[in-house]
Design brief:
Elements: H1 8-12, H2 15-30, E1 44-53, E2 58-61, E3 68-71, H3 79-85, E4 93-98, E5 112-116, H4 117-124, E6 133-137, E7 142-150, E8 154-158, E9 168-178
Antiparallel strand pairs: 1-2, 1-3, 1-9, 4-9, 5-8, 6-7, 7-8
C-alpha cells in the first residue's frame, strides 16, 4: 500500500504548525531572530557606562544621566571603546578592559621635558606649582603639560595624557541603537 503524502495546504492546517509559524513571525518582527539588530558601521549607539581604573578609582560615569552617543565609524571616541560597541544589542550589558594602546596611549618618558625656569617664569609672570597644568606652544600646536618638578634652575613638564599607560575598566549598557538607513 502506498502512503499518501500530505499536501502543503494540509500541513498548514495542523494547529502545531500554525503555532510554530506564528511564534517565528512574532520573534522575527520583535527582533529576537533578526540578525540586523546588532550595532554596525554607521549606526548610532546610545550607552550608559561606568569606567574605573585598575586600582578601583572611579574614572567616569554617565549612569543616572543622559546616554552617551557614538556613531560607529566616525572615530570620535577612544579606539577601544568604539571597537567594543560593534555587535552590541539594545539592553545588552557588557564589561571589558581597554589597554593603554587603545585608550590614552602608553606612557612615554620622552614627553617629560625640562625647561629653563627663568624662561617659564618670564612667560607666565610667576613660578608655577607642582601639579599645575600649563599650555606650551611650538608655534603650530598647543600642548598641555603638568608641572612635575620645580628646581632652582628648571621646571619639568609632563605632556603625557593624565591617563596614559592606564587600563580602563568599562561596564556599559546599550540604551538604544539607531540603525544607519543608508546601509
Amino acid at each position: 500500500m502506498v502512503k499518501k503524502v500530505n499536501s502543503i495546504t494540509q500541513i498548514f492546517r495542523r494547529p502545531i504548525v500554525v503555532l510554530f509559524l506564528l511564534l517565528i513571525s512574532v520573534a522575527s518582527f520583535s527582533g529576537c531572530l533578526a540578525s540586523g539588530d546588532a550595532a554596525k558601521e554607521g549606526d548610532t549607539v546610545f550607552v550608559y557606562y561606568t569606567v574605573t581604573l585598575d586600582d578601583g578609582t572611579d574614572f567616569e560615569s554617565n549612569v543616572g544621566g543622559q546616554p552617551f552617543k557614538v556613531v560607529l565609524g566616525q572615530h570620535k571616541v577612544i579606539p577601544g571603546f568604539e571597537k567594543a560597541l560593534y555587535g552590541v544589542k539594545v539592553n545588552q550589558t557588557k564589561k571589558f578592559v581597554i589597554k593603554p594602546e587603545e585608550a590614552y596611549g602608553v606612557y612615554d618618558s620622552g614627553l617629560v621635558v625640562s625647561y629653563n625656569k627663568a624662561d617659564i617664569v618670564a612667560g607666565l609672570g610667576y613660578v608655577p606649582n607642582v601639579g599645575e597644568t600649563l599650555d606650551h606652544s611650538n608655534g603650530v600646536q598647543t600642548f598641555r603639560g603638568v608641572v612635575k618638578e620645580v628646581t632652582d634652575t628648571t621646571i619639568v613638564l609632563d605632556f603625557n595624557h593624565e591617563y596614559a599607560g592606564r587600563h580602563l575598566n568599562f561596564k556599559l549598557t546599550v540604551a538604544e541603537i539607531q540603525k544607519n538607513e543608508a546601509s
